[in-house]
Design goal:
Chain lengths: ~325, ~325, ~290
């Protein structure tokens, strides 16, 4: 297990290094003035000059890479062109909003997807099971930004049940929750379907296991068997999926933030692109990618950690 | 003697793509009060199907075509699911074959044993006391500590003892043991069987003991039923079956029992041929194609003929029913 | 469609094709196929079906609702939404086909290479694949669009960048599995060149998984194009793309819901259609691949 963890960690670090290298290549290796690419057209001559000096653009490429890399390691991801603040600061300020959105999207997926999957498994072959099956595939297929716009159209504009813009007033959790419903639905809907499918398959497998047969042979009530004997085991695979899902939901969150004009990393980077605030763009890409790699790493390690005990006790 | 379990002319079918698979045909069996009855037969003879039919746990494609199953007078086949559920784990209980997969891996032993006592209006502390006492009875050291442990922390033998403890905990009229020792090594097998014997003596429950291990059957049971390909071919006391086997299949089984072999040999005796295809049951005696004594009459299905008091076998070789044997055997 | 064959290569072709025919037995597969067909026909015959030029502006007829003249109404510049929607399908396919084609080619090349390569090269390639997959899609798309500039070509590049590693990985797995298969070993033993082995023996066997992969990937490709155009980083206006029509729908959401419908509905239909089709193909090809029992 330890060996696997170290292996996996090394891989994650390798990936991050490769990502940084790719970013470096995009800025420095692509033909064109690296200063202009890195800082964008709004950079002042002074900024350009200081950047040129800091990055040592006359140095050989590998020296520049070392500087770039060490800069990142010390937390210096560049300076926001417009606000003149550190990029890292700006990004880390907005990150909590995005994480909140992702967490609540996850909540939709868990709160609706798992019960649906469980129900479908217990009533296998019934009409409702088939309907859930078809709907699951459908919602997985439809992209989140489409769901976002339609949710906005139907529930905010037409029905007026939910607000269309923003994250809500500071310090008022209920208002913020109100603002959270539609965006998180947009991001989480696909995962509702996905979890429903996974839980259904998992439940069907677990219900066929010997220990469930024992429970039935001892006349335990159906409720007990489903909710205390089967479901806790059946949902174990979904935990690891959620770890991976965090990364995927990031993409959905970006769209949701733009559509619902919510603060967050997505909106930050989108505005930065439109404002040609390129250091902010590259810094955001770097941080979010690092976050994504971290999330998948933790999910993988969690799987491995859970695995031996489950394996040992099941076999 | 009152009968605890009475199976009468039971027929069970499974729906298969190529037609109905007749897993059990005309199975009749009695387990008396306080009696230990063994069912012996090869893999695939229908032992598990019989067990599932009694428990009402047949898979979705299985159905009971004919027959009755009664537990102390209650018609099990006529019960609703809910009613059957209240009989299971209360008046009858089971010990399954594989201790490694029988217990829920994510719940503690104590939790699982408490759950099966859900019908009892006792306090949690009382239930725990009972559980601890039962664990001690089945020979598990340090029961109070075991209650908090998880199945994977126990060895196979221990887990099977826990399974027996669970089955006994509900104070059943009938305990069904489905090859409880098959997955254990030889020394453990004897221990488990002796444990069952002792528990039965103390509680007076009836046991239906399913196994293909002849030695254990001889050790534990009062009477035996021999199953072959979905039918009961011979029934009688342990003495009858082991010393005066009447059916050719029983005779072959005993001959092939490795325990009976006195001299070292490189080849174990086997019964030539294969078990019949349950999708196309032959018309006559089910064992005819493998029987060394098959003759003309065997194309007709033999009825159960009386060999001696309490000893019957379905074989044409027993042409006449002998007069009452004065030497009391079995039952 | 059963093929009795003693030639291993012919047998290798059978699984993919029988899967296709079995896929159509499934009602969802049929619906999927119908929707896909609808898309293809609409895109090919776009000019015939649409009554207007997709870029023709009728400034006095802005935000009209559906009518006989304008089946889905008009947008903020008076352009017929139905025509724009139909032509948007063309754009989607104009991205999808070359992108998937190139991705497939790259994927097959690198997948086969990785499958047959010595361990160190295999690991190096895997690292590159995994690294690319480690980027959250949107972020990479945004970054690239920023540097290169938004255009249809950028979208194609993004799609290739994300699809090729996925294809390569799957093909690598299949190659590794087949590498030691008997008929391959036999072929090598009789002195066949590596190209012959790859082309005649391995490739036909991976057509099945490839077909499934492509049909499952198409919704992703279309989504990527629509998503990027939605953000203004893809196809440049006034060329209609479902994503940019949806964006207009978003911008003018209070003026008329029909823009959003014209942009979003085809995306929904297309993604669902390809997914149903892909799912039933996968089930038909190998029920064991199904992850939901």
């Amino acid at each position: 297990m330890l060996f696997y963890a170290i292996n996996r960690l090394a891989l994650a670090i390798a990936i991050v290094v490769v990502v940084i290298a790719v970013l470096f290549c995009m800025i420095y290796v692509i033909p064109g003035d690296p200063v202009r690419i890195a800082l964008g057209p709004l950079a002042t001559p002074e900024m350009a000059a200081s950047f040129r000096a800091k990055m040592g653009l006359d140095q050989p490429l590998w020296v520049q890479f070392i500087r770039f890399f060490s800069g990142i390691l010390t937390g210096d991801l560049g300076t926001d062109i417009l606000s003149n603040r550190g990029v890292a600061t700006s990004v880390l300020e907005q990150l909590p909003f995005t994480l909140t959105l992702i967490a609540s999207s996850m909540l939709w997926a868990v709160a609706i997807g798992i019960p649906l999957g469980c129900y479908a498994a217990i009533h296998r072959g019934s009409l409702l099971d088939r309907i859930i099956g078809v709907l699951s595939v459908a919602v997985i297929a439809v992209p989140s930004f489409v769901v976002a716009v339609y949710a906005l159209l139907i529930f905010a504009v037409h029905l007026g049940w939910f607000p269309a813009i923003g994250a809500g007033r500071r310090g008022e959790p209920l208002d913020q929750l109100h603002h959270l419903v539609l965006p998180s639905l947009a991001v989480g809907l696909g995962w509702v379907g996905y979890l429903a499918r996974v839980v259904r398959a998992s439940m069907l497998e677990v219900m066929g296991e010997n220990y469930i047969r024992t429970a039935r042979a001892f006349g335990l009530p159906r409720r007990t068997i489903v909710y205390r004997y089967a479901l806790p085991i059946a949902v174990l695979p979904t935990i690891t999926l959620l770890g991976i899902g965090v990364g995927h939901m990031l993409s959905g969150a970006v769209f949701a933030e733009i559509v619902f004009a919510r603060p967050g990393v997505g909106k930050l980077v989108y505005d930065a692109i439109n404002a040609r605030n390129y250091p902010l763009v590259s810094g955001t890409v770097l941080i979010t990618t690092g976050f994504y790699v971290l999330a998948t790493l933790m999910a993988d390690l969690f799987v491995a950690g859970l695995d031996p005990r489950v394996r040992a006790s099941l076999r | 003697m009152t009968s605890v379990l009475s199976v009468g002319n039971l027929a069970v079918e499974f729906a298969a793509p190529y037609g109905p698979l007749q897993a059990l045909r005309n199975v009749s069996l009695e387990v008396g009060s306080g009696e230990i009855v063994g069912i012996v037969g090869e893999s695939g003879c229908g032992k598990s199907t019989l067990l599932n039919a009694i428990l009402g746990l047949l898979p979705a494609n299985g159905r009971i075509a004919r027959g009755q199953i009664t537990l102390s007078g209650t018609d099990l086949l006529g019960l609703s699911d809910r009613a059957l559920n209240s009989v299971r784990g209360d008046r009858m209980s089971v010990v399954f074959q594989d201790p490694m997969t029988t217990l829920n891996p994510v719940l503690s032993i104590g939790r699982q044993m408490t759950d099966i006592l859900y019908r009892l209006p006792l306090s949690a502390a009382d239930k725990q006391a009972r559980i601890a006492a039962m664990l001690a009875r089945v020979g598990i050291p340090d029961p109070l500590q075991r209650i908090g442990q998880y199945p994977h922390e126990l060895s196979g033998g221990m887990r099977q003892r826990v399974a027996i403890a669970m089955a006994m905990l509900v104070e059943p009229e009938l305990l069904i043991a489905d090859e409880p020792t098959t997955a254990l090594d030889a020394t453990l097998e004897i221990q488990i069987v002796r444990l069952l014997k002792e528990l039965q003596r103390n509680t007076g429950c009836s046991i239906l003991f399913i196994s293909h291990h002849l030695g254990l059957i001889a050790e534990l049971c009062d009477s035996v039923a021999v199953m072959y390909a979905g039918e009961i071919v011979e029934r009688g006391s342990v003495r009858d079956i082991f010393h005066r086997p009447a059916h050719p299949y029983t005779q072959s089984l005993l001959e092939c029992d490795p325990a009976r072999i006195d001299e070292p040999t490189s080849r174990l005796p086997t019964i030539p041929g294969d078990v019949p295809n349950l999708l196309a049951i032959p018309a006559g005696c089910i064992f005819a194609d493998r029987c060394p004594y098959a003759f003309a009459s065997c194309t007709v299905k033999p009825a159960q003929r009386l060999v001696a008091n309490g000893h019957t076998a379905a074989c044409h070789l027993l042409t006449a029913t002998p007069a009452h044997d004065t030497a009391a055997v079995g039952s | 469609m059963s093929v009795q064959a003693s030639d291993s290569a012919a047998v290798a072709r059978a699984p993919g094709l029988t899967a296709v025919s079995r896929g159509f037995a499934d009602p969802l597969g049929r619906i999927g196929f119908a929707l896909v067909l609808l898309l293809l026909l609409a895109a090919v015959f776009a000019d015939v079906i649409s009554a207007y030029e997709p870029t023709k502006m009728l400034p006095r007829d802005r935000f009209l609702g559906p009518s006989y003249e304008h089946l889905l109404g008009t947008d903020q510049l008076g352009r017929d939404l139905f025509s724009r929607m139909i032509h948007g399908g063309r754009v989607a396919l104009m991205v999808a086909f070359p992108a998937i084609g190139i991705s497939l080619a790259l994927g097959i090349f690198f997948g086969l290479a990785s499958g047959y390569a010595p361990k160190w090269l295999d690991n190096a390639l895997l690292l590159v694949f995994d690294a690319i997959r480690s980027f959250p899609t949107v972020m990479l798309a945004l970054a690239l669009a920023t540097i290169i500039g938004p255009s249809l070509q950028t979208v194609v590049l993004v799609v290739i960048l994300f699809s090729a590693p996925a294809y390569a990985r799957i093909i690598r797995t299949q190659t590794l599995a087949l590498r030691n298969a008997e008929f391959v070993l036999a072929s090598v033993a009789t002195g066949a060149s590596i190209w012959r082995v790859l082309g005649v023996h391995i490739l036909p066997n991976i057509i099945g998984p490839i077909l499934i992969l492509v049909s499952m990937d198409l919704p992703v490709v279309i989504t990527t194009e629509a998503g990027m155009s939605f953000l203004g980083l893809g196809v440049r206006p006034p060329t209609p793309s479902w994503g940019s029509i949806l964006n207009d729908g978003y911008a003018f959401i209070r003026e008329s819901p029909w823009l959003a419908i014209a942009g979003g509905l085809p995306i929904i239909i297309t993604t669902i259609g390809f997914t149903f089709l892909g799912e039933s193909l996968r089930d038909a090809y190998d029920p064991k691949l199904r992850k939901d029992g």
